[in-house]
Amino acid sequence: MKNHTITRAVLTELATRWSSSTGFTLLELLVIVAISGILVALMAPGWVTFLNVQRLNAAQEEVLQAMYNAQSRAKQNRVPWQASFQSVNGAIQWAIHPANTTPAASLWRQLDNSIKLDDETTLQQSNGIRRLQFDHQGNINGQLGRLTLSSKMGGQAKRCIVASTLLGKLRPGKDHPTKQDGKSCY
Questions:
Q1: I need a surface site. Which of 14, 21, 106, 125 has the fewest CB within 10 A?
Q2: Cα radius of gyration (the chain)
Q3: H-helix or E-strand spanning residue 80
Q4: CATH no. for residue 129?
Q5: CB 96 within 8 A of CB 108
Q6: In sequence order, what DSSP letters do the residues of 92-147 get, joined into one string?
Q7: Residue stretches of the chain with pLDDT short of 50
């Protein structure tokens, strides 16, 4: 019986010590909050840059697919088609349509609001609309050029699509530290 009493006394003592020592002190909580704040402050700029680059990549892919779609329809329908791009209230819109129809009558789609047309864009422009036109064989009909995208939120990241040959070759590009032909996106 005595062993049973000692065991019960030991367990009661351990339970009392454990229950009085659970939780954190105010000082410990303040240290944890301070360390967490420092880590968030260090990681935030990198996270914002990462998100901007991901948005640029998605916009570049969307524009490239629009151009490929216009090129494909030109071959399929055996008539010239074009991919048109415009900036409306700071938002970039795109549409594909037969070259002989006005872009205004087309269904315009919008890129992410955080993306803008960069000054490096050299696609032919008429009435505020930039265009890339493909002839009935899918070749580029007219001027070569590039459509360059950058973030409205700043940063050096750029993404571009380059129409590099009259045969209709489209090539995605990104920013580089050294310029080529005065452009950093190639």
A1: 21
A2: 30
A3: none
A4: 3.55.40.10
A5: no
A6: EEEEEEETTS-GGGS--EE--TTEEE-TT--SEEETTEEEEEE-TTS-B-S--EEE
A7: none
Residue tagged 């037969």 (tokens):
98
45 by Cβ neighbours in 10 Å (0-12 / 13-18 / 19+) ranks as exposed
pLDDT digits (tens, 9 = 90+) for 54-89: 999 999 999 999 999 999 999 999 999 999 999 999
Q: Record the pTM.
A: 0.78
Residues of the domain holding 55: 28-185
CB atoms within 10 A of CB 36: 10
Q: Is residue 68 part of a domain?
A: yes
**Distance between CA 169 and CA 147 in Å, rounded?**
14
Domain count, the chain: 1
Q: Which of 95, 121, 131 is nearest to 183 (CA)?
A: 121
In the chain, the amino acid numbered 76 is Q
CA distance 44 to 117: 26
Say if CB 100 and CB 79 are below 8 A apart: yes
> What is the model's pLDDT at position 19?
59
Residue found under tokens 């402050």: 41
> Could you give the 3-state DSSP secondary structure of residue 90?
coil
Nearest to 183 by CA among 155, 153, 145, 135: 145
Non-local CB neighbours of 51 within 8 Å, separated by 6+ positions: none
